[in-house]
Design brief:
Blueprint lengths: L2 E5 L7 H12 L4 E6 L12 H13 L5 H18 L5 H13 L4 H20 L2 E2 L16 H12 L5 E4 L2 E3 L5 E3 L5 H11 L4 E6 L20 E3 H9 L10 H5 L5 E5 L8 E4 L3 H6 L7 E14 L9 H11 L13 E7 L7 H12 L3 E14 L9 H11 L4 E6 L5 E7 L3 H18 L1
Parallel strand pairs: 1-2, 1-7, 2-4, 3-4, 7-9, 8-10
Antiparallel strand pairs: 5-6, 9-10, 11-12, 11-13, 13-15, 14-15
Helix pairs in contact: 2-3, 2-5, 3-5, 11-12
GO molecular function: aspartate kinase activity; ATP binding
Family: Belongs to the aspartokinase family.
EC number: 2.7.2.4
Length: about 450
């Protein structure tokens, strides 16, 4: 069995965390490909290495001394080296970085050094081969990853090695220039490697034991989700459940490789398994009717009322054109016979809401136009909902029992997701109502 194990910043924050990683890696000989993030925070008042590197770049850009920040980064790695008794020549590494900073090195190169240095130390500590991501992760000039070239380079780099460590987050352009991904990009590195080596599972080690049914800041000690489909994950991630980088799903889903979200600080916890199809496991252990509850505040609804608008050819296109003109992404468009509601994120229309409204009025001549602000969107996700007749009605009834005013409601055609719009002031109350009724009560039966 081949496993790709990616360890996040909290998993490599200090020597104690390094020791936990080593124990996890050595517990399973299948963990042959190790991907690491840069060192994360040791405590709430600490700083992530990547954040410090971005600050150094800003200081350089504005011609401000960066010495104290640079020393903070160096001290962190020197302490890990000393605590673990390692021999990696960090003096040489940091001298080279400082030399390149003074020579106006690229931002991408500078901020990639967190993963690079963490990878160097972790490889020595694990007794594994170190492979610089710049030598294997190949980008095209359009910014996409060249899977074919990356696969060829990875195969050569891994030849003869029992285990390799690869820094995440960055790679190289065809001309050799370092290129970084978006924040959290180490998740993508791990997923790409899992795809290329045809891994049996992609383990993503972080500081949480998988996905939770609801936000623990709202629900005290919510249940862990033991397994979730890729489609459910996409729905939950879009509405705010962020444990895994969105773009990390595609490379592994392409080859039906499951993702296992695990906790470095609780390695015996099985975490959450993300799969294309959970039906086989569901048959042995039936899931809750609701897989997860997530959502976000801060939405605005522009409600356009016009008699017979649903029969007016091109009405919806003209309405959406007004938002496209101002580069505003539309979240959803609930429709009735004479009303079209366009829901957008409030911050997206902060600067141009009234220009959009004016455009709509001039183009569509509505009978009325109303703006509703301070709205929340709550997504109730569950592959079992399609098998529970009357689920939508039961959900609406529960909102009524708690005097929660429903502003909008929509359901996906595959019955995987029901999205309910409520006032921001009812957001937490609504999530509690759903969790208590459909999770807590079902658990206690």
């Amino acid at each position: 069995m081949i496993k790709v194990a990616k360890f996040g910043g909290s998993s490599v924050a200090n020597a104690v965390q390094f020791a936990k990683v080593k124990k996890i890696v050595e517990a399973d000989p299948g963990r042959k490909f190790i991907v690491t993030s840069a060192c994360g925070k040791e405590s709430s008042d600490d700083h992530k290495v990547t954040d410090l590197l971005y600050l150094i770049e800003a200081h350089v850009r504005y011609h401000v001394s960066y010495d104290s920040l640079f020393q903070a980064v160096q001290d962190k790695y020197e302490k890990i080296k000393k605590d673990l008794g390692l021999t990696t020549d960090l003096d040489h590494e940091f001298a080279m970085i400082r030399k390149l900073i003074d020579a106006n090195v690229s931002t991408d190169y500078l901020v990639s050094r967190g993963e690079y240095l963490t990878g160097r130390l972790l490889a020595e500590y694990l007794g594994a081969a170190f492979v610089d991501a710049a030598e294997v992760m190949s980008f095209r000039y359009d910014g996409s990853i060249d899977m074919a070239v990356t696969g060829e380079k990875l195969e050569k780099a891994a030849a003869g090695a029992d285990r390799i460590v690869i820094p995440g987050f960055y790679g190289a352009m065809p001309n050799g220039a370092i290129k970084v991904m978006t924040r959290g990009g180490s998740d993508i590195t791990g997923a790409v490697i899992a795809n290329l080596v045809d891994a049996d599972v992609y383990e993503n080690w972080t500081d949480v034991s998988g996905f939770l049914v609801a936000d623990p800041r709202i629900i005290e000690h919510p249940l862990r989700i033991p397994r979730i489909t890729y489609n459910e994950l996409r729905e939950m991630s879009y509405m705010g459940a962020n444990v895994l980088h969105d773009d990390a799903v595609f490379p592994v889903r392409q080859k039906n490789i499951p993702i296992n979200i695990r906790n470095t600080n609780d390695p015996d916890n099985p975490g959450t398994m993300i799969m294309e199809d959970c039906s086989e496991m569901d048959a042995l252990e039936p899931p809750h009717v609701i897989t997860g509850i997530t959502g976000r505040k801060g939405f605005t609804s522009i409600n356009v009322i016009k008699a017979h608008s649903s029969t007016e050819v091109g009405f919806l296109r003209k309405l959406l054109d007004a938002f496209e003109k101002y580069n505003v992404s539309v979240e959803s468009v609930p429709v009735t016979v004479d009303t079209f509601s366009v829901i957008v994120q409030s911050h997206a229309v902060d600067q141009n809401l009234y220009e959009i409204v004016s455009e709509i009025k001039n183009t569509l001549q509505p009978d009325d136009l109303r703006i509703e602000e301070h709205l929340s969107q709550i997504a109730v996700v569950g592959r079992e909902m399609r098998n529970r007749p009357g689920m939508s009605g039961a959900l609406l009834s529960e909102f009524g029992n708690h005097a929660i005013n429903i502003r909008t409601i929509s359901q996906s055609c595959d019955e995987l997701t029901i999205v309910v719009g409520v006032n921001d002031s009812d957001f937490e109350k609504a999530i509690h109502a759903i969790y208590d009724k459909f999770i807590s009560e079902e658990k206690n039966k």
